[in-house]
Amino acid sequence: MARYLVTGCAGFIGSWITQALVERGETVRGFDNFETGHRENLSGFLDRIEFIEGDLRDQAAVARACQGVEIIFHQGALPSVPRSIKDPRTSHTANIDGTFHVLEGARAAGVRRILYAASSSAYGNQPGFPRVETMVPMPIAPYPVQKMAGELYMRSYWQVYGIETVCLRYFNIFGPRQDPNSPYSGVMAKFALQMLHGQQPTIFGDGEQGRDFTYVENAVSANLLAAAAPAEKVAGRVFNVACGQRHTLNQTYKVLAELTGFHQPPVYGPPRTGDIQNSLADISAAREAFGYEPSISFEEGLRRTVEWYRQQLKQ
Ligand code: UD2
User: Which domains does the chain have, with CATH numbers?
Assistant: First the structure.
């Protein structure tokens, strides 16, 4: 019987968490429908987990996946701000119904703790940097609203049913296995691949928008630390998971261009609807509650990411 369940185990962040648990010798069940995840993300450890192919929108399948589990890493979601603007209903059902199904499955199965993949987009465009968890959320596009609804549901299930829910607000996570091929891909994955292919990336807006880009292994360590922390430190709470540094897209473009050996300037296009101008986190709450440290820097993360995409292209 598996002790841990990872939803979205074949996705970008979910596969990293699954792998880290397997490498620690834990018993893991993974749940994914391969809508945005990929089987290759599980290569090397698929035979060491109990894998269930299923959809978060299928309440019965989610309930079965929760049986016998002690801790859930709920990473499964349909990400992307622009996807949610184009087709709000599809991401609504995956993100809000899907999260509700996980909570209900957990309640029925007596799951002790849930780590929830929340989003930095919750802060919206309000003034005040760095972002602290005590700020009033002001989500703009449907995707941030959906992720925020999940946070409120998480807190409710702690207060009402005593499930130790912990929300980790991810700040633009990037790294190996992030899918570069979708129109809704994260900017790092997209730009890295385009540059390696010799194609000119497009920056939406003037490129002066900033992000607290965070390498994926930092997010994995936040999850594992928060999963192991005493309930009184983390249950019912929200934590920023970030690096604590802001880089503009123009700066990021330059570093990526150097790493990939790409010599052309970007194309500048119109700003993206629903975009946030700036994002920068205060990470002291996660530091204090469970000893989180972003040990892999922005530059080192970018180096590893570009190297990975380069290897992928060779294969
Ligand atoms: C949001 C959240 C992030 C995560 C993510 C999931 C914020 C600050 N961050 O990421 O935490 O939840 O959603 O999807 O809300 N861009 C270009 N050219 C491209 C693609 C993107 O210029 O080809 C720009 C885009 O307009 C934006 C920046 O790059 O200003 C980052 O975009 P993204 O889609 O990688 O991530 P973002 O910030 O929407």
Answer: 3-172+215-242+281-295 (3.40.50.720), 187-209+245-279+302-314 (3.90.25.10)
Take atom 9 of ligand 1 and give the residue whose Cα is closest: 121
Cα 82 to ligand 1 centroid, rounded to whole Å: 9
Q: What is the pLDDT of residues 62-114, one digit of tens each?
A: 999 999 999 999 999 999 999 999 999 999 999 999 999 999 999 999 999 99
- Cα separation, 102 vs 110, in Å, equals 12
CA–centroid distance, 17 to ligand 1, in Å, is 22
Residue indicated by tokens 């929200």: 238
Q: Are the CB atoms for 65 and 31 separated by under 8 Å?
A: yes
Rounded CA gap, 234 and 280, in Å? 22
Q: What share of the chain is helix, strand, coil (3-state, %, to 5)?
A: 45, 15, 40
* C-alpha distances in Å from residue 278, one per residue of 61, 64, 186, 255: 39, 41, 16, 19
Ligand 1 pocket, residues with Cβ under 6 angstroms? 79-81, 119-121, 170-172, 186-187, 190, 202-204, 209, 211, 249, 272, 275-276, 279
Is residue 25 within 8 A of residue 10, CB to CB? The reply is no
Residue nearest to atom 12 of ligand 1 (CA): 119
How many angstroms is it from 149 CA to the middle of ligand 1?
20
- List CB contacts of 126: < 8 A, sequence separation 6 or more: 135, 136, 138
Q: pTM for the full model?
A: 0.99
Residue 307 is which amino acid?
A: E
pLDDT (tens digit, 9 = 90+) per residue, 259-303?
Answer: 999 999 999 999 999 999 999 999 999 999 999 999 999 999 999
